[in-house]
Amino acid sequence: RVGRMSLHVVLAGSSGFLGTHLREELEGGGHRVTALVRRPAEGPDESSWDPGAGKVDRELVASADVVVNLAGSPTVGNPHSRKWSTELHDSRVGTTKVLADAIAAAPHPPYFVAGNAVAWYGDHGAAELTEAADSRGHSLMTNVCRDWQAAARPAVDAGGRVVFLRTTPVMHRSSAPLQQLRLLFKAGLGGRVGNGRQHMPMISLRDWVAATSYLVEHPTADGPFNLCCETTPTNAEFTKALAERVHRPAFARVPGPALKLAAGRLAPEVLGSTNGRPQALLDLGYEFADPDVDSVLASGLS
User: Model-level pTM?
Assistant: First the structure.
């Protein structure tokens, strides 16, 4: 492990899929985790907060070594619903701002590990995207990611160390998107989306947890980090790999126009191409357990 000392970590979003696994990993590594909960606290390892009202225990935040924000409404929902897209945006931006303001107000700002997503980049075609790439387009998720990152500005301006987790879809059989895709492909209904040439960044659960823990413990990590496997597959390569894993043919094809209609404002995320490369993690010395689509799927389906 990178860390040599026990850290006090304040964690928002600890009850979610990724938060549950991260908390387990951090506590297993000897760190003390205080979970921020939106109900009365039930013990010393919990603290009640109300991000909608801008309320968090500022003394607790100031006492932390690291603050991690994984809070946000589910990304799976009705892409045609204004209410869903508003919650998607406000739950991420609001929680980040409340925590960033509390960090900025601390005498010694704690290190902030702020959740975000690879959709920040937008559609770049086949170009390989390290953390130095720009943000393009105005799709729903790209706009959310820009505002989400901007909400951490108070912590940055206060001189605190801030890492942005540009997370890609985490492939695991117990959660979206692999849960649904596995069933679809097993039913023989899997296939390419559009022309299949668009790049689909992804990461295994074990690499997401290990890489995020690595960043939490790292004494110099700063700025954005792509949480994706080393080699990003195209949709056609992913389709072939998943079909082989579930031992089914994948002849179906979802035409782009039909998908645009069905996916609504999320269509640019599905049809767009993000050829991510986790350069900052590799430069920091992180070693991937699952560097490509075959190992990501093997890990996610095991």
Answer: 0.95
Cis omega (within 30 of 0) on the bond before 255? Answer: no
Q: Do the beta carbons of residue 110 and residue 102 sit within 8 Å?
A: no
Q: Are 11 and 33 in contact (CB under 8 A)?
A: yes
Integer Cα distance of 151 and 104 in angstroms? 12
The set of residues, in sequence order, having a beta carbon less than 8 Å from that of 11 and lying 6+ positions away, is 19, 22, 23, 26, 33, 34, 35, 36, 68, 70
Which of 301, 295, 285 lies closest to 1, judged by CA?
Answer: 285
Distance from C-alpha of 117 to C-alpha of 153, rounded to nearest angstrom: 17
Q: Are 263 and 199 in contact (CB under 8 A)?
A: no
The C-alpha R_g of the chain, in whole angstroms, comes to 19
Q: Where are the beta strands (DSSP E) in the chain?
A: 8-12, 32-37, 46-48, 66-69, 111-117, 128-129, 162-167, 170-171, 191-193, 203-204, 223-227, 252-254, 275-276
- For residue 236, how far is the Cα from the chain centroid? 23
pLDDT in tens, 130-157: 999 999 999 999 999 999 999 999 999 9
Dist. CA 185–CA 171, nearest whole Å: 15
Distance CA 203, CA 264 (A): 25
